[in-house]
Design goal:
Blueprint lengths: L4 E5 L4 H17 L2 E8 L5 H20 L4 E7 L2 H12 L3 E5 L14 H8 L3 E6 L10 E5 L9 H13 L2 E7 L10 H11 L5 E6 L3 H11 L4 E5 L5 H6 L3 H7 L4 E6 L6
Parallel strand pairs: 1-2, 1-4, 2-3, 4-5, 6-7, 6-9, 7-8, 9-10
Antiparallel strand pairs: 5-10
Length: about 270
């Protein structure tokens, strides 16, 4: 996968700078245009606006030094309304958005900014929870993957693009129901072959237990520094009675984590 236009959302939070660094790395690898985007409400604190501006200027300088075509865009208003319009106007095919420390990714908080973006943004969307406030140096990526394999999905293509950018090793992690069940489904093995065609080092591992806990334990014990998960597409009824693995991990991940939701067309 090769992206053409990538938008990175910036604000006064240091986490937005780290997230933008991932966007910069991917933009350089894909030779894509980078848009550093910020939006604030009219009564926003002047200090926050100034800090955001400094972040944007510094990141633009970094991107320009790498030969990336970079644009700085600032708007006044609600980001959940403005950003989807920017995606369409700029014909962007990937957006990086970071979760602030106080921003929760919960099923029942349906009016939050992140859920508006999940619903309204038509491009690929990478929602990031930053744990390590350092320049990305990803070496080991953990990719939880369902029984179905997701072999043809854009998440696997996005995963391959990120892993190739950082020359990282990928571990495909499958949760089994029983400890004795230690074989990966054939569909997941096909995913491995697809990733290996990109000259990536790919491992397969199985785990047991509660999904969120199992992913966290795997990431910690195997020293993974990035988790790439897929957004849950289960229905409302299922969400009411079953835990969403993405929510469980995004709430308090052990390392930097990306929740990837592939592009979709609005009705």
């Amino acid at each position: 996968m090769s992206y053409r236009t990538i938008i990175a959302v910036i604000n006064e939070q240091s986490a937005s700078v780290v997230t933008a660094r991932y966007a910069i790395a991917l933009a350089e690898a894909c030779k894509a245009e980078l848009i550093l985007y910020s939006a604030h409400v009219k009564k926003r604190n002047d200090i926050a606006i100034s800090r955001t501006g400094h972040h944007v200027d510094d990141l633009a300088a970094v991107a320009a030094a790498l030969g990336i075509q970079v644009t700085k865009t600032t708007e006044v208003g609600t980001i959940s309304t403005l950003l989807p319009k920017q995606v369409l106007e700029r014909n962007a095919d990937l957006v990086f958005y970071h979760l602030t420390p106080e921003e929760q990714f919960e099923t029942f908080i349906r009016s939050s900014t992140v859920h508006h973006l999940l619903r309204d943004i038509t491009s690929d969307l990478a929602i990031m929870r930053v744990v390590a406030m350092v320049k990305p140096h990803t070496a080991h990526i953990l990719a939880p993957i369902g029984k179905g394999g997701d072999g043809a999905s854009r998440r696997m293509q996005f995963l391959a693009a990120v892993a190739t950018t950082f020359h990282a090793q990928v571990t495909l992690f499958h949760l089994t129901g029983r400890r004795s069940e230690n074989k990966m489904p054939k569909s997941i093995s096909l995913v491995r072959k697809q990733l290996e065609q990109e000259k990536l080092t790919v491992l397969e591992r199985c785990g047991t237990g509660y999904i969120g806990e199992a992913i966290g334990i795997e990431a910690i014990t195997r020293h993974n520094d990035l988790i790439v998960m897929g957004a849950c597409d289960c229905g409302v009824f299922r969400r009411l009675f079953l835990a969403n693995p993405a929510e469980m991990v995004m709430r308090q991940p052990p390392c930097n984590t990306i929740l990837f939701r592939p592009a979709h067309n609005l009705p």
